[in-house]
Amino acid sequence: METSVRARIRAGDPDAFGSLFDDYARAVHHHAFRLTGDWSTAEDVLSLTFLEAWRLRGSVDPDGGSLRPWLLGIATNVVRNTRRAARRHEAAVSRLPREEALPDFADDLVGRIDDAERVAALRSALSRLRRPEREVVALCVWAGLDYAAAAEALGVPVGTVRSRLSRARKKLHKYAGSGPSSWDGNPDHGRGQTDGDRVSAARPTHEENR
Questions:
Q1: How far does CA 26 lie from the centroid of its chain?
Q2: CB under 8 Å to 100, separation ≥6 — which residues?
Q3: pLDDT tens-digit profile of 80-119?
């Protein structure tokens, strides 16, 4: 059945794309949030990802399994482009005359949900990784892709995913001051990057993985 869905996606079937969105929007949204740390930006990335998926529908292989790695790969590229655009915008703004800043009390009034707090803490350590290392952690640890699926999403060899993830784990042990169990686990031993309780510790509890 998945093969026929791929054929319909390639043909630009609106109903097939509607089903694709229903099946994977949540996974794409959470992946975007984990990479950006901002729910509003994640919403923008979600929209742009499916617009880009429509544009690239002809690149879908007629044969294959889940389209989740393909979509997460597109989302990863959208995040990269969004960050580049944000940096250009910040550079432009920095050249404008500065006005006197007014106090903003909004942050003191907005409650932080547990998921956002947990992700923020993890992102503190992740922010010290190189971008390719952050991406493999987001795909393998948080999104639960195995090595092959992560390689497909990023368009790199499986060995590159393994080496990047290995380097990322070592750095995270150092930066986060955590024991090996916090980031260990073999993506080839099933869909999740980690086992048992460690999965729920790394992912928002309300995410519905498909």
A1: 11
A2: none
A3: 988 776 566 556 556 556 554 444 444 443 444 455 666 6
